[in-house]
Amino acid sequence: MKHFDSRSFRGLGLVLLSGASSCTLYQPLLNMLPAVRKPGQGAVALNGSFPYGVQGTATLSPLPHTLVFAGGGLHAYNVERDSSNNYARNRQYEVGIGGYFNVKQTWLSATVGGGRARGYRYGKFGSSDSGGGFGILGLPTGGKARWTPVPELLGYYNTRFVQLTGWWQDARHPNQEIGASLRLNQVQFTQLTLNGEVQPLPATQHYVQLAIVTQKPLWRQLRWQAAASWDFSSPLIPANAALARAPLRVWAGLVLGPRQARVQ
């Protein structure tokens, strides 16, 4: 396959980073940290997302008002790779550090971190397939547009982020906690190949991620949680934005860690 020039690749980059459900190379993790409330405490969360995603996150407080965390996840589309199926895999990890404090019954944290990801797609890409962004991508060649099959794409990217997280007790339901998180995420591709040939890298991207979570106790320090997350291009940096909007992601999982003290 011929190497695409940078002008042709711009169209491809927009398709790749265009919020196409579970099928895009870039996939955000659920940006929600389980709370730790004093030194020596730790917490672990395991979540699954519909339709094909799983991730785990662990936090630890080594010092007063200080936390460290690490997480990782896998997103998938289809279980088999062959000529009749579109297939995608994304795996990534992240680590970070930050601080936390309590204001009455509200837990607040501010963190920074970064990570590394690998995205792989096998199939046909483009906007002609409304079921997830697959199809045939038209790329200009020699001044004329033509339909060119794009069967295999592999990319690696780094992430950097700043994040605010809050947890508070539901006043009407004392056993229920509600959480919310806001993250500004920077995504920078470091390697991209199309059918094994190196391609020009897209510009650095910036995304805003929002998440809302509710959780209730199951047994002792074990709780179940349900979450919804949404990510979109940052309006503060429009020149580098390629993701206009992304579908709402729904998560469910378990958390093991300290609970918020009840209001007396």
Question: What tags apply to this protein structure?
Answer:
mainly beta, 10-stranded antiparallel beta barrel, two-stranded antiparallel ribbon, YjbH domain-containing protein, disordered N terminus, single chain, 264 residues
Please provide a written account of the structure.
This is YjbH domain-containing protein. The protein has one helix at 6-16; strands at 42-49, 53-63, 66-77, 87-103, 106-122, 137-141, 144-148, 152-169, 177-194, 197-198, 205-219, 222-233, 249-256. It is mainly beta. It has a single domain (6-256), classed as Lipocalin (Beta Barrel), CATH 2.40.128. Strands 1-2-3-4-5-8-9-11-12-13 form a ten-stranded antiparallel beta barrel. A two-stranded antiparallel ribbon has the order 6-7. Strand 8 (152-169) and strand 9 (177-194) form a beta hairpin. It is globular and about 55 Å long. The termini are far apart.
